[in-house]
């Protein structure tokens, strides 16, 4: 009877082992690692520049009396000067010249007055001249007093260049304005009476 019990116990053990709820994963042995189910892709490097450097200012130049020239048309007490750039020609690539407010020297004989020029004539302040787009501008004046000497038209400019050498070369061989307003007779006021 003892052997029957032994057989019964062995049978029960086999039965219990078969109903044990599934297989267990094998235990890791030291030094082994399990791989994850998915493999991570490497991170993508950005294609933009890593960092932008601060913009370096371009060389610039200010001329109080730009090298300008052009024809002056007279119409009674009015004058109109066509203003052209007489400095380095062509203007260096990458250079922008911006005209400032013109004035006359010496004062007292002429005052600036754009009515001296045609209505469609482009006035000079804030005009930009570059190598590929150069067109003259116009300055009008009105004679307000008698005079015997030509009165110079002075126009300052501000230039921004690619290089310092380009800025230094702008004046070329001409220095200052070659435009003058020649005084004429000023109508006198008729005596009242």
Précis, in short:
The chain has helices spanning 2-18, 164-169; strands at 60-63, 68-69, 72-75, 78-85, 96-99, 103-105, 110-112, 128-130, 137-143, 151-154, 157-160, 180-181. The chain has 193 residues and is an alpha+beta fold. Strands 2, 3, 4, 7 and 9 form a five-stranded antiparallel β-sheet that branches.
Measure the end-to-end span.
165 Å
Shape field: elongated
Runs with pLDDT <50, length 5+?
12-17
Please report the total strand number as a whole number. 12
Strand content: 15-25%
Q: Helical amount among residues, as a percent range?
A: 10-25%
Secondary-structure content class: alpha+beta
Output the number of helix runs: 2
> For the residues shown, what is the average pLDDT?
81
Order of helices and strands: HEEEEEEEEEEEHE
What is the gyration radius calculated from CA atoms? 45 Å
Largest sheet: 5 strands, antiparallel
Q: What can you tell me about this protein's structure?
A:
This protein is of the alpha+beta class and 193 residues long. 12% of the residues lie in helices and 25% in strands. The protein has 2 helices and 12 strands. It has helices at 2-18, 164-169, and strands at 60-63, 68-69, 72-75, 78-85, 96-99, 103-105, 110-112, 128-130, 137-143, 151-154, 157-160, 180-181. The strands form 3 sheets. Strands 2, 3, 4, 7 and 9 form a 5-stranded antiparallel sheet that branches. Strands 1-11-5-8 form a 4-stranded antiparallel sheet. The protein starts with a helix and ends in a 12-residue tail after the last strand. Mean pLDDT is 81; it is low at 12-17.
């Amino acid at each position: 009877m003892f052997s029957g019990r032994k057989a019964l116990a062995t049978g029960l053990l086999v039965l219990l082992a078969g109903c044990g709820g599934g297989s267990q994963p094998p235990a890791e042995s030291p030094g082994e690692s399990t791989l994850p189910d998915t493999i991570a892709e490497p991170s993508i490097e950005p294609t933009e520049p890593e960092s932008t450097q601060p913009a370096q200012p371009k060389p610039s130049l200010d001329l109080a009396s730009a090298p300008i020239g052009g024809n002056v048309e007279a119409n009674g007490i009015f004058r109109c000067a066509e203003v052209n750039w007489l400095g380095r020609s062509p203007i260096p690539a990458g250079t922008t010249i911006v005209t400032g407010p013109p004035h006359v020297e010496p004062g007292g004989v002429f005052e600036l007055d754009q009515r001296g020029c045609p209505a469609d004539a482009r006035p000079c302040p804030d005009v930009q001249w570059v190598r590929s787009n150069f067109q003259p501008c116009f300055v009008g004046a009105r004679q307000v007093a008698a005079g015997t000497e030509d009165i110079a038209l002075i126009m300052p400019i501000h230039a921004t260049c690619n290089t310092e050498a380009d800025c230094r070369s702008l004046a070329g061989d001409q220095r200052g304005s070659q435009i003058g307003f020649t005084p004429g007779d000023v109508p006198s006021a008729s005596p009242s009476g």
